[in-house]
Amino acid sequence: MKILVCISHVPDTTSKINFTENDTKFDTNGVQFVINPNDEFGLTRAMWFKEKQGATVDVVTVGDKSTEPTIRKALAIGADSAIRVDAEPVDGFQVAKELAKVAEDGDYDLIIAGRESIDYNGGMVPGMLAKLIGANFINTCVSLEIEGEKATAVREIDGGKETLTAHLPLVIGGQKGLVEESDLKIPNMRGIMMARKKPLKVVEPVAETPLTKAEKFEKPAPKGEVKLVDADNIDELIDLLHNEAKAI
Known about the structure:
The strands form three sheets. The chain has a nine-stranded mixed β-sheet, with helices on both faces. 28% of the residues lie in helices and 28% in strands. The radius of gyration is 21 Å and the shape is globular. It contains six helices and 13 strands. With 248 residues, the protein is of the alpha/beta class.
């Protein structure tokens, strides 16, 4: 089984977010980048298929050379090879088109992507990718088993979970739950050394024109002052909720 894991290069959640050029560009100065957490769950599940079922695992990202430390980390975790599409990711459609070209060229059985990246939270790429390559698609996947050409997956739905079956080729949008957090792999020194020798192929983009453009970024408004109400003063609490917060 050939597996392709899509990796997004995203800011660490502890990073301080700032913008430049009149709030039209994200300021990357001083920002630590990591593997998108939803992708990390998918990568770990792919490693399980490699160890238990002999699958081969490639990873792919769309980005410039600055993304290579992130994708090298995926190699250090255990992926066999990496592909970097040399293009600036602008919107979900453009990224999906670039990933589709890699997926078609590699003839993969299973493509694992995070259900969304934690920077822009678009959540569009996995579904677009599946449509573009004509594969089955399961989103918000929290469990995945493969037996022969058949996949059994569990996904989260409103109020519960749903179990589905599908045939390969398959694209999934994975998330927390796909593996236990305690099973997430941290690269060890041997893995880091081996990653330096693993192939990282840089390919030219198909140069698809993005369909959307970010006009301006804006931070959330600061939180207002907290008003404390005595636990015994129910009348004041109701009055504040009704007349000030207008929550009831």
